[in-house]
Amino acid sequence: MPRRFHLGWFTNFTPGEWNSSFAVGGSHWDGRFYVDMAQAMERACFDYIMLEDTLMVSEAYRGTAEATLKYALMAPKHDPLPLAALISAATRNLGVIATMSTMAYPPFLLARLAATIDHIAGGRFGWNIVTSGEDSAAQNFGMDALPPREARYEMAEEYVDLVCRLFDSWEPDAVVLDRERGIYADYRKVHPIDFEGRFFKCRGPLNTVRSPQGRPAFVQAGGSPRGRAFAAKHADSIIATANQIGGMRQYRDEVRAHAAKVGRNSDGIKVLYLVYPILGETTQEAKAKHQEPY
Ligand SMILES: Cc1cc2nc3c(=O)[nH]c(=O)nc-3n(C[C@H](O)[C@H](O)[C@H](O)COP(=O)(O)O)c2cc1C
């Protein structure tokens, strides 16, 4: 039996390579390049494609947007959700994961959007749960600064609880499609959630049907200890950076320990580590490419 492993591809809806030797000026903004890429990944048996997102034009370097825009570094960037829908419609087996921030989306909208795309994908949609990490993103949503990390994760815990209740607000057999009696859905199987937390309040139920998976797959990339604990509690898959095999083992052990604390079977949590492949016709060519300035 060959040892099998999981593969994901992490990308974002940006112009892509626009001025390197083989570039043709960057990909068009219609998403076709990424759809094509996703189809190739599907042929190569990748588990999923994951679409990164942030919600600002960064001025982190020298307090200006100059470098960000000059080099097209993380901006401009299209919204990943319509692309997730396009990719979903053009593939059959690939998991499609999009990033949505708990800071930006009202929980109801996120739950509805995720349920909708999970239907378009036939049960292959996933949510990369992020809490956002930039004050400049928070300033696009009526805040002066992000809440501190601990508060962000407290909010995210409540947020995930709320959206899970929305995902469950339609019982699996709520849609009866009874032609004889003229009943589409049994209203007794669709429940308001009457959620009142410290941060969020939502009546429910979701105004769309239960998603094929019940809820989208949850993906997380928690860097800090708090983020890692959150990921081990909720995620079906975790993306992480780690140094060498030892670092990966350590991270995995940490996920196992956190998961055990909350009664989860950690073998069900797929941890994928980031690699940044540099390709060439030969090893030498790849190494030379690695040395090229950006
Ligand atoms: C592989 C990877 C992918 C990430 N993708 C995103 C993303 O798309 N959007 C985002 O706002 N943050 C993203 N993050 C940031 C994490 O969600 C997280 O906020 C960050 O690692 C800092 O950890 P902390 O939130 O636990 O402090 C990513 C992090 C990693 C390691």
Notable features of this structure?
15% strand, 294 residues, 35% helix, globular, seven-stranded parallel beta sheet, 9 helices, binds flavin mononucleotide
Describe this entry's structure for a reader.
The chain has 294 residues and is α/β, with parallel strands linked by helices. It is 35% helix and 15% strand. The chain has helices at residues 32-43, 66-70, 80-90, 107-120, 135-138, 149-167, 225-234, 244-261, 283-291, and strands spanning 8-11, 48-51, 95-101, 125-130, 175-178, 183-185, 195-196, 201-202, 217-220, 237-240, 270-273. Strands 1-2-3-4-9-10-11 form a 7-stranded parallel β-sheet, covered by helices on one side. A hairpin with a 4-residue loop joins β5 (175-178) and β6 (183-185). α1 (32-43) crosses α3, α6 packs parallel to α7 (225-234) and α7 (225-234) packs across α8 (244-261). The termini are far apart. Flavin mononucleotide (FMN) binds at residues 52-54, 99, 101, 128, 130-133, 149, 221-224, 226-227, 239, 241, 274. Residues 52-54, 99, 101, 128, 130-133, 149, 221-224, 226-227, 239, 241, 274 line the site of flavin mononucleotide (FMN).
